[in-house]
Structures are given as structure tokens and as C-alpha cells.
Specification:
The chain has helices spanning 2-16, 19-24, 26-47, 51-56, 61-81. The chain contains five helices and no strands. The radius of gyration is 17 Å and the shape is elongated. Helix content is 84%, strand content 0%. The chain has one domain (2-81).
Length: 83
Amino acid sequence: MAEEIDYAKAMGERLANDSLVVARHPNTLQSFDVVCQMLGHLGAVVGAADRQDAIDRIGMEDLRTRIRRKSLGGEAQGAASGS
């Protein structure tokens, strides 16, 4: 998974080094960079022995909050259904 994330980042870097692409699509490139950062954080969580600790170390507050909310919701639903 890490190799694929690195590959995506490398694609973004190639695009960012093309002045024509940067001039025409700066917002898209910025969005692509954010997505690559998110994938990196998610990959770290998935591969972590202690996923909660990996979530706590995510630097992107919005992503960390969304993951916590979803993981708490999933735990509450599982507890309510007896799973």
C-alpha cells in the first residue's frame, strides 16, 4: 500500500513540475496533494498495530475528527446490536 501511495505522490510531483499544468490547474493540484496526504495517513492507520494511536497522530484535524466520529459510531452501533 505504501508503494502505491508513493506512486501517487510521484505523479503529483511530476504534474507540479510542469509549469503549464500548474498555471492551468493550481487548485486541482492542491486538491491532489491533500488527497495524497490523506491516503498516507489512512495507510498508516490501516497498517498500525495500535490503530487508535495512529489516528491520534494524524496531523490533519478534519480527517482525524471524521475517522474518530466514524469509528465511535461503528462501535456504538456494534454494541447496540450485541456484536
